């Protein structure tokens, strides 16, 4: 008996196969172009040779040579091959397949993949523009009566975690992280005077659109954390923090989103340390009460 996954025909990654076979023979310049294409396949579909060259610090002639060295007639041929493999959308299976094929069962390469992704990402997150955005976001949070944290998928866990950190530091905070109609119950917690922290995606899901609409109705300002937000998210936000999570083709890294959330929480606590300390003192009192044996026990 075959399972659905066994019966489903897997698309052949012709570009990936050629890169694995010929990548080691490429010069450093050609390899830089090939690696860029491999990590940004969907982006490359809309780029010219000059634009790819600008991203790889090479020339358009080098881009064409790299494409031809991998066995394609030219950039159009490459794009047709990529488009045929990618289809309409990139699934989690596709991302993991691309990631594992790139790493070639090498544990050291896997460690480096995560390390390098975070090291590069930290540099991006702490650029001057992002620092200014972090300052602006913390000022909005400081003046808010409550802080809502929207995130679904992997970000749902981060929304819960950040809400707990904020509560511990004396803030009224709540997660908006359910999907479907269950999100409606959570949205009832949003009040005028709150601020909304949204962990956004490249596309705006129905839950995100509904959350933005409620924020608009209540005139709640929006702080957006995203690597490539849709216009629906980006145009509505008062503050946008750029949070990279790897390339569009490989398994995303969520650690940088957590880093940004912790920067917001710690930065907010630093602006009003007395508030955080008083809240933590109350919390430890609760701990002692909970641990104390019941009377008459």
Description:
Pfam families: HTH_6 (PF01418). GO terms for molecular function: carbohydrate derivative binding; DNA binding; DNA-binding transcription factor activity. Keywords: Membrane, Transmembrane, Transmembrane helix. This is Transcriptional regulator, RpiR family. The chain crosses the membrane at residues 140-159. With 297 residues, this protein is α/β, with parallel strands linked by helices. Strands 2-1-3-4-5 form a 5-stranded parallel β-sheet, with helices on both faces. Helix 3 (28-39) packs across helix 6, helix 5 (49-56) packs across helix 6 and helix 11 (155-168) runs parallel beside helix 15 (255-271). The chain has 16 helices and 5 strands. 60% of the residues lie in helices and 7% in strands. The protein has 2 domains: 8-88, Orthogonal Bundle (Arc Repressor Mutant, subunit A); 122-290, Rossmann fold, CATH 3.40.50.10490. The longest helix has 19 residues, at 107-125.
In short:
60% of the residues lie in helices and 7% in strands. It is an alpha/beta fold and 297 residues long. The chain has two domains: 8-88, Arc Repressor Mutant, subunit A (Orthogonal Bundle), CATH 1.10.10.10; 122-290, Glucose-6-phosphate isomerase like protein, domain 1 (Rossmann fold).
List the keywords.
297 residues; alpha/beta; Arc Repressor Mutant, subunit A; Rossmann fold; 2 domains; five-stranded parallel beta sheet; 16 helices; 7% strand; elongated; disordered N terminus; transmembrane; carbohydrate derivative binding
Task: List strands and helices in order, with pairings.
Elements: H1 4-7, H2 14-22, H3 28-39, H4 41-44, H5 49-56, H6 60-69, H7 75-86, H8 92-103, H9 107-125, H10 128-142, E1 147-150, H11 155-168, E2 173-176, H12 182-187, E3 195-199, H13 206-218, E4 222-226, H14 231-234, E5 239-242, H15 255-271, H16 273-291
Parallel strand pairs: 1-2, 1-3, 3-4, 4-5
